[in-house]
Each structure stands twice: as C-alpha cells, then as structure tokens.
Design goal:
The complex is a heterodimer of chains A (about 110) and B (about 120). With about 110 residues, chain A is an all-beta fold. Chain A is built from no helices and 11 strands. In chain B, strand 9 and strand 10 form a beta hairpin. Chain B is built from no helices and 11 strands. In chain B, strands 2, 4, 5, 6, 9, 10 and 11 form a 7-stranded mixed beta sheet that branches. Helices cover about 0% and strands about 55% of the residues of chain B. Chain B starts with a strand and ends with a strand. With about 120 residues, chain B is an all-beta fold. The chains are: A mainly beta (about 110), B mainly beta (about 120).
C-alpha cells in the first residue's frame, strides 16, 4: 500500500537547537518528493522538490535530502518564526499525491 | 512564482444550503487542479482531480453529487458543496501545478467552511 509517514508528530526545540524531521515513504513510481510548510488556517507553502536519491536542496535554515526510502528536512539553528507544520508529499504514479500527516514544529525563544 | 488564489477564505452557512468555493491560477494556466480536504490536526486528503473541459475524477468515498466540481477554464475551478451538513465543516484547499514555470504543486490559501 502506498503511504507516507512523517515523524515525529510534534517537535519542540529551543531557538538555535538544530534537528531533523523524517519522511519515509512506500510509494510506487516515485516522481517527486515535496516538502511544504503550513501555518495554522493557511494552505501549504511550497519549500522543496526532490526527484532522485542523493539529491539535496537548501533554503535559508532548511535543507532537504532524499534516499530511496526516506527524506529528511534538516533545520539548522531554528528561529521562532520557523514554527509551523511541515508536510511531506510524494508524487506517485498517475500524478497522485500522497501526503504525510505532518510534523508540528514549535521553536521557543 | 506560481500563485493560486482561493475564495472565500472562510464561510459560514446553514444546513441544507449550498456553498461554492473558487480556485484560480493567477499567473499560469492549469489544465488540472486538485481539491483537498483537511480536518483539524490531520493531513490533506485528496477529494478529486479537476480537469479543464471534462468531468472531474473523484477519490473513493467522495460523493460526486455532493461535491460538484466545475473546471470551465484554464484558470478557474469551482467546488460546490451541495446540501451542506455540519459534518461537511472542514478546511478545503485547492492546488494546481505550473508546468511551464517549472514550479511544484502550488496550493491556495484554503477555505474554512463551517456549517451550522
């Protein structure tokens, strides 16, 4: 069964405390893995797309990596404004998107 | 970058009435748009794929007659929740992909529907 699993469900960090979020997937015909940020009451905001194992992308304090089974979103020296829910989605066959349940990140000053 | 506009951002309606939600791609054409539903503290669940000029494709368990989708142009898709009931209260989000611009799937800002 195609599915995407994110962990942890929630993560509390102190400002400046680096960590990683995990997204593991079992989706046939991977056509891309996407990371989004979602703030309460808003739609997801696009962060990264990764297409093949070994690929990495960076944006400010965020870095996304991809292997054949999982992706990591590394957050370096986070700030309170990085607090949000981070969603992972995998695009499989027939252009179907599979979303993980998200990791709610709370960065305390 | 690609922008998807969704309207309204929130709506309250009475049970039994219908509500229309609009999704527009502002700076690109989208032959395909997607409609999602999100319950509190849960992830997005795909409801249907909207295809310009043809019938929408609904996911298993989604009632076609209740959630009417119309994709009349390359920049506009609408979702109408017919005969709404309190259990239809949710956060509805649309999405589209700007293929020409090379962007990932872009999401609208969502519509919070409350049925009273």
């Amino acid at each position: 069964e195609d599915q995407v699993t994110q962990s942890p469900e929630a993560l509390r960090l102190q400002e400046g405390e680096s960590s990683s979020l995990n997204c593991s997937y079992t989706v046939s015909g991977l056509r891309g893995l996407f990371w989004y940020r979602q703030d309460p009451g808003k739609g997801p905001e696009f962060l990264f797309t990764l297409y093949s194992a070994g690929e990495e992308k960076e944006k400010e304090r965020l870095k996304a990596t991809l292997t054949k089974k999982e992706s990591f979103l590394h957050i370096t020296a986070p700030k309170p404004e990085d607090s949000a829910t981070y969603l992972c989605a995998v695009l499989g066959n027939f252009n179907k998107f599979y979303f993980g349940s998200g990791t709610k990140l709370n960065v305390k000053p | 970058g690609a922008v998807v506009s969704q309207h309204p951002s929130w709506v309250i309606c009475k049970s039994g009435t219908s509500v229309k939600i609009e999704c527009r791609s502002l700076d690109f054409q989208a032959t395909t748009m997607f409609w999602y539903r999100q319950f509190p503290k849960q992830s997005l669940m795909l409801m249907a794929t909207s295809n310009e000029g043809s019938k929408a494709t609904y996911e298993q368990g989604v009632e076609k007659d209740k959630f009417l989708i119309n994709h009349a142009s390359l920049t506009l898709s609408t979702l109408t929740v017919t005969s709404a009931h309190p259990e239809d209260s949710s956060f509805y989000i649309c999405s589209a992909r700007d293929l020409a611009g090379g962007y990932g799937y872009t999401f609208g800002s969502g519509t919070r529907l409350t049925v009273v």
